[in-house]
Amino acid sequence: MRFFVALAGLFLTLGLVGCDSKLEGDVWPLVEDCDLHQQTCRSQQADARASLTLSPQPIPIAKPIQVNVLLEQLEAEKLELDISGINMYMGYNRVTLKPDTDNPDRYQGQTMLAFCTNEVMHWQLTLLVHQADGQVSQIPFKLETRNR
User: Fold this and answer.
1) Which of 12-16, 124-128, 140-144 is least confident?
2) Full DSSP string of 68-79
């Protein structure tokens, strides 16, 4: 009997963890035509805008990266940056960004890109804007790195 209770608990836990991948809200178009290695990249949907800056530039592999985000006309209860490998699974990499004390529309944090043996690595960096009503806007940016 204990085995079945433990098994039911495991399935319930796995089911709850799996719910995170089904976020409800807007999915913005992928920003592909901007080079995060050289500049701030911006995305816009209606009046809402999000700007993402990573530094240092060019963006290093396996070293700390400073993340700065500016949200305009977009309220966030919580803001996260999710980094996922496109051409190779690179594990779970999500960081919660903290609002700037001087400007609540600005967020910052630190992350790192994992080392990969592929010569060229394609990444998707997605801002997850958690809103007060429970919706989550997903704002994706494309990034390419080269193993040197």
Assistant:
1) 12-16
2) EEEEES---SEE
What does DSSP say about strands 48-55 and 65-72: parallel, antiparallel, or unpaired?
A: antiparallel
Rounded distance between C-alpha atoms, residue 28 and residue 31, angstroms: 9
pLDDT at 14 over 60: no
| Cα torsion 74, 75, 79, 82: sign | negative
The fold of the 23-146 domain, in CATH, is Immunoglobulin-like (2.60.40)
pLDDT at 10 (0 to 100):
39
pLDDT above 90 (res 11): no
- Residue 5's SS3 state is helix
Q: How far does the chain reach from its first CA to its final CA, in angstroms?
A: 56
Tokens of 3: 């085995």
What is the gyration radius of the CA atoms in the chain, in angstroms? Answer: 17
Other C-beta atoms closer than 10 Å to the C-beta of 31 total 19
What does the domain layout of the chain look like in residue ranges?
23-146
Residue whose pair of structure tokens reads 């429970």 in the numeric block: 134
What is the per-residue pLDDT across 78-110, written as a single tens digit (0 to 9) for each? 999 999 999 988 889 999 999 999 999 999 999
